[in-house]
Design goal:
The structure holds two protein chains of two kinds. Chain A has three helices and five strands, in the order H-H-E-E-E-E-E-H. By secondary structure, chain A is of the alpha+beta class. Chain A has two domains: about 1-40; about 40-90, Irregular (HU Protein, Chain A), CATH 4.10.520.10. Chain A has a three-stranded antiparallel beta sheet with strand order 1-2-5. In chain A, strand 3 and strand 4 (about 70) form a beta hairpin. The two termini of chain A are about 20 Å apart. By secondary structure, chain B is mainly α. Chain B folds into two domains: about 115-150, no CATH class; about 155-435, no CATH class. In chain B, helix 8 (about 220-230) packs antiparallel against helix 9 and helix 14 (about 370-375) packs across helix 15 (about 385-390). Chains A and B meet through helix 1, helix 2, strand 1, strand 2 and strand 4 of A and strand 1, helix 1, helix 2, strand 2 and strand 3 of B.
Chain lengths: ~90, ~450
């Protein structure tokens, strides 16, 4: 399902225009970005949690060349499905 | 920081961001997630603009064990959601580290370098991190240790090889003590004979050393010397002997050390530490013996009017000699013998110019009455006259404490003449007399 399709569906359900829904979605994404940048985690009941996790720098070895590489640290946005969502998918 | 944003909080935040009523925001969020989960349940992947892609992946059935009961069980095949954030979002969240790129490291980069780099990285991230609440240091610290581990693995391998060496060095120092003290004890046995024979003896010992030398260093040579030097005193016997035994057991594992067996390493450690212990005990005992000798000599000298002035000098020299000896142990034996000469030579010019006054010389570990006699009279046999002159301080010509200062009588006093066979014969006769007296 593509984004446009999703927005249309949601718009129909909440009885609002697609533009409004899109604005709301943008607002949600902005909020998520803001909170996750602060390493907060956002828990959505029945769906899952969005969490930004810091991954430490690490040394890897390129198996082809045998060169050691220092991979820099990063903060990755992760999503962990809730138990309810998992059971629904089973 | 790291706080959990609950759904009502999220609703409030979204409402504030979009300037919509909370009711609308709440409804929207609920519908958003229901639509997504429904789509996922239908087996559809969902792409949300600005957020990312929720996609389904199949997990194949696999076997596992129940952690509690240990029973085998099969995890059935299922689907799971994986979320891939959109590039823009991921970059925005990763903002503090956007500047970093993967660096190719040098192969011979040491562990410290990496640790240094790690600490620098931590420092940088702290500086760059825009939110003040951000703390990358805490998670990174424990992780930094495993990173280094692949390199530290080499270290334990290298260390045991280094350790025996470091142990041996302190070993070399105490070894000198028994040797320095004991040599004068054994030497007088050789004394009555001419110097040439003594040299033969030393070469003999060197021959003995050579087959045993193998790959060991200086330390080994001293070990072999110790059995040679043990004599006379019965109590001393045990200590060098033990050293020797210890040494034999120690040597084998050292040579096979390259197999790098953990047990062997422990064994070597034990042997080496025992060896060191014995040496320290032995060294301590000999030092004690030496000090006692010194005291006897000093008291004897106290009565001797000629020698009174020599005592302060002698006291100074006694500690100086072992110190010089210690530095030389680091060198090979031959170089040591060479180094000994310059050490003794400065005394000669000091002693000889004042011919009118009594001439002094010092008995050291390597210079006995015979050597002194050879130096001053040209023949080692004349040592008896030096002994004769110093009866007051030398109780037994076979046991003279190193550092003892002796008066060298003028050659004319006893009619010493190295070119006169008569004089030599007289000296030998005297030696015989002393031998017989004992």
């Amino acid at each position: 399902m593509e984004s446009k399709e999703l927005i249309d569906q949601i718009a129909a359900r909440i009885e609002r225009s697609s533009a409004d829904t899109e604005k709301l979605l943008e607002g949600f994404v902005a909020t998520l970005k803001e909170r996750c940048s602060a390493l907060d985690c956002i828990a959505v009941p029945g769906f899952g949690t969005f969490e930004a996790k810091k991954k430490s720098e690490r040394v890897t070895v390129n198996p082809a060349s045998g060169k050691k590489m220092l991979v820099p640290p990063k903060i990755a946005l992760t999503f962990k499905a809730s138990a309810l969502l998992k059971s629904k998918l089973r | 920081m790291n706080s959990k944003v609950t759904f009502p909080e999220l609703v409030d935040a979204v409402a504030a961001a979009t300037e919509c009523p909370k009711r609308v925001s709440e409804l929207f969020l609920k519908e958003l997630f229901t639509v997504i989960s429904e789509a996922l349940r239908n087996g559809e992947s969902v792409r949300v603009r600005g957020l990312g892609l929720f996609k389904l992946t199949n997990v194949e059935a696999r076997k596992s064990v129940n952690v509690n009961t240990g029973e085998e069980m099969e995890i059935p095949s299922h689907r799971k959601v994986s979320f891939v954030p959109e590039k823009a979002l991921a970059d925005a969240i990763n903002a503090p580290f956007v500047g970093f790129e993967t660096v190719v490291l040098d192969d011979d980069l040491s562990e410290e370098d990496i640790q240094l780099m790690a600490s620098v990285d931590d420092f940088d991230t702290e500086e760059q991190a825009t939110p003040p609440t951000f703390s990358p240091e805490q998670p990174s610290q424990p992780v930094a240790v495993p990173i280094v581990q692949p390199q530290t693995v080499e270290q334990p391998v290298a260390e045991p090889i280094v350790q025996p060496q470091t142990v041996e060095q302190p070993v070399a120092v105490p070894i000198v003590q028994p040797q320095t003290v004991e040599q004068p004890v054994t030497e007088p046995i050789v004394q009555p004979e001419p110097i040439t024979e003594k040299q033969e003896l030393t070469t003999d010992t060197e021959d003995m050393k050579e087959p045993l030398k193998t790959n060991e260093d200086t330390d080994v040579q001293y070990n072999i010397i110790t059995p040679e030097t043990k004599p006379t005193e019965v109590e001393d016997y045990n200590i060098p002997e033990d050293d020797d035994e210890e040494y034999v057991t120690e040597r084998k594992p050292v040579s096979s050390e390259k197999s790098n067996d953990g047990f062997m390493r422990g064994f070597i450690w034990g042997a080496v530490s025992m060896f060191v212990f014995y040496l320290i005990v032995g060294g301590g005992y000999f030092m004690y013996q030496h000090i006692q000798n010194q005291e006897i000599i000093d008291t004897a000298r106290g009565t001797d009017s000629i020698e009174v002035e020599a005592t302060p000098e002698e006291v100074n020299e006694a500690p100086a000699e072992p110190a010089a000896e210690e530095t030389q142990t680091a060198d090979a034996q031959k170089s040591e013998a060479e180094a000994e000469k310059p050490a003794t030579e400065p005394e000669k010019p000091a002693a000889e110019p004042k011919a009118a006054e009594p001439v002094y010389d010092t008995v050291t570990e390597r210079q006995f009455l015979t050597k002194i006699a050879a130096k001053h009279y040209g023949n080692a046999d004349f040592w008896v006259y030096i002994y004769e002159e110093n009866r007051s301080i030398i109780k037994n010509p076979n046991t003279i404490a190193p550092g003892t200062k002796v008066v060298i009588p003028p050659a004319s006093k006893y009619g010493i003449d190295k070119n006169n066979p008569e004089s030599l014969r007289a000296a030998r006769k005297k030696i015989q007399e002393i031998e017989n007296k004992k």
